[in-house]
Every structure is written in structure tokens, then in C-alpha cells.
Amino acid sequence: VNGVVLSYSASCRSELNLSQWSCGVINASRCFCILTVLTATNSAGTSPAAHIHIPARTCT
User: Fold this and answer.
1) Which superkingdom is the protein from (predicted)?
2) Based on the number of CB atoms within 10 Å of its own CB, is 47 exposed (0-12), middle (13-18) or buried (19 or more)?
3) Please, are residues 46 and 37 in contact by the beta-carbon 8 Å criterion?
4) The whole model's pTM is what?
């Protein structure tokens, strides 16, 4: 079915110190997370790489 993601590759990192961690849980002590989607594949093909900026509620 077109539009259904069959597979993906992603990582999370911080812009502040470029540290990387698992995308399973976003650490609440960080100001934001950048989700780097390396690829996503569906029946139409493979997507280009993308970056998604996820802001936190507060930045301490």
C-alpha cells in the first residue's frame, strides 16, 4: 500500500553538543532533539534524508 512506511533508519542528536542517543526516549533535560531520518522506504520508493526539530517544553 502506497504511503505505508515499510522500513526506516533514524538517529537523535543534540545541536548543543552533537551527542547522539537512542530515539526511543527523549531526555527531558535536553532543550530539544533533532531527529535525523536517514531513509524511509515505502512502495513508492525511498525518501531523501530529512531533519525534524523537536523542541522541549522548557530549556534549563
Assistant:
1) Eukaryota
2) middle
3) no
4) 0.34
